[in-house]
Amino acid sequence: MAEGYNNNSHEKKKKIAIIGVSSILLVAMVAAVAVGVSQGNHKESGDSSTGVSQAQKNVQTLCQPTEFKETCEKSLASAAGTTDDPKELIRAGFRYTVNELKTAISNTTTLRELNRDPRGRQALDACTELLNLAIDDLDNSFDKLGTFDPTQMDHYIMDLKVWIGATITYQQTCLDAFENVTGNAGDQMKKVLNVTGQLSANAYDMVNQVSSVIKGLQLNNLSRKLLSDDGFPSWVTDGKKRLLQAAPGNIKADVVVAKDGSGQVNSVTEALKRVPKKNPKPFVIHVKAGIYNEHVLIGKDMPNVVLIGDGPTKTKITHNKNFADGTVTFHSATVAVVGANFIAKNIGIENSAGAIKHQAVALRSSGDNAIFFNCQFDGYQDTLYAHAKRQFYRDCTVSGTIDFIFGDGEAVFQNCKIVIRKPMDNQACIVTAQGRKKANGPGAIVLQGCHITGDPLYIPVKNINKGYLGRPWKEYSRTIIMNSQIDDVIQPEGWLPWMGTFALDTSFYAEVNNKGPGSVTTHRVTWRGIKKLTPQQAVDYTPGKYFLGDTWIPQAGIPYVSGVMN
């Protein structure tokens, strides 16, 4: 603000804005701040006609920044009636959207009963799960409002962006599940999700709107840093820090898993049954050395689970669900993480289906604020599904053939080894397939200080089964590779089209300060989506900036660089 600005007025506007943000509920969460400020001196009138006029004005204001204005205005107007209270209007909009999602779930159930294709039924089951996750994220947003702390304003807004972005991802994942499904169930599902998809996109646009409002009011100065003094992110508690620093012999576990009978249980699944529902503190599962053949789900009601092995090649969880045998990609993961604040350390996760089985996920990460340290993920096509929300990988190894790091989460891989494996005949190898669906969405795959190389079996065929850095899975696919070593396993063109000219103009691919024979950009493709970032622009994709603040700093347990790596 300019010097000499009236401090009392400024503080009053801050308070009004904070009240507005505190009342944010799904559909108009952000614009409420602007309404709160612009209407700060508005006095309620007993004239009902004035109320109608004001209600209409509020609806127009709330919907102004959205992509689908007509849908926004219709949903708020029909839900809110003639109220001129922006907070009540927003609450009504929230209820409207949740009800639309519930209707979509009901329609999914009906479609399932009518569908006789087993793969179609699986797709519809996935949709039911995904739409329930969307409702959960909206409910979480609502619940958080009751304990809103204005000193965490930036963090709060970032949470909303991530969670709303996830609801968009969930709905797209539902539609993706209908790949190769016979009949018209996929088209019917697309119609079912048309309105909810537009509402979610509108909500995200409103989230973006609030950032500029907050900056204009200098509210960001109230925000505490997301980083504690010792360099770990805010969601890593003291207990978790000690766990991440502990040697295997010094782990104080809530449950020990062992194949030889030396623990309380002999499977990770059995250990997870002991996690208290909505667990509020770290629940530590020590998985001793061994091969555990099982499908593991860290459910949405299992936050704060810490999974620690004896080493990424000593403790391995493996399974073989895959697309070729009838499992949709979303449900093929050997380990699926949905619960928030998950940590994995010193553990291997594998999908053993093999290249011939096509899509076969080793890890699917959908839980917010997930950390993977010194882990190994092995598969072929679609090894690591960075599905949704914030996730950080440090000192990990990821191996695969086609699109083996994919998804629309906010995923940063730091100091990781990315290994291209030998595929089937006539297959190319593609490291990344990022799936951002919305132009201003938060998702990206960032490889920072990584080493992209080839498995010994791949090297002899690297010029036959050619390797590429990535391809655009969705229209606004975004991948940044910086400060990394790229071996001569990557073709000079660097990037591969998905199909025809799809997303070549709208994707976002950047290479910054890499080295190695595969890093030479002289003969790279020249799509409009290929970006040349300045050093300052590249900083925006370092984890300290991308995760909003210096979220990670080197400490015992997880070495870390928050900015540019040398």
From TrEMBL:
Pfam family, any one: PMEI
UniProt organism field: Quillaja saponaria
Family matches, as SUPFAM superfamilies: Pectin lyase-like (SSF51126), Plant invertase/pectin methylesterase inhibitor (SSF101148)
Record protein name field: Pectinesterase
Family, per entry: In the N-terminal section; belongs to the PMEI family.
Transmembrane regions listed in the UniProt entry: 16-37
Residues annotated as catalytic: D403
GO-annotated biological processes: cell wall modification; pectin catabolic process
Residue intervals of the Pectinesterase inhibitor domain: 54-206
Signal peptide boundaries: none
Keywords: Aspartyl esterase, Cell wall, Cell wall biogenesis/degradation, Disulfide bond, Glycoprotein, Hydrolase, Membrane, Secreted, Transmembrane, Transmembrane helix
Cited InterPro entries: Invertase/methylesterase_inhib, Pectin_lyas_fold, Pectin_lyase_fold/virulence, Pectinesterase_Asp_AS, Pectinesterase_cat, Pectinesterase_inhib_dom, Pectinesterase_Tyr_AS
Main location, first listed in the record: secreted
Pathway: Glycan metabolism; pectin degradation; 2-dehydro-3-deoxy-D-gluconate from pectin: step 1/5
E.C. number(s) listed in UniProt: 3.1.1.11
Compartment list: Secreted, Cell wall
Gene3D superfamilies documented for this protein: Invertase/pectin methylesterase inhibitor family protein, Single-stranded right-handed beta-helix, Pectin lyase-like
PROSITE patterns noted in UniProt: PECTINESTERASE_1 (PS00800), PECTINESTERASE_2 (PS00503)
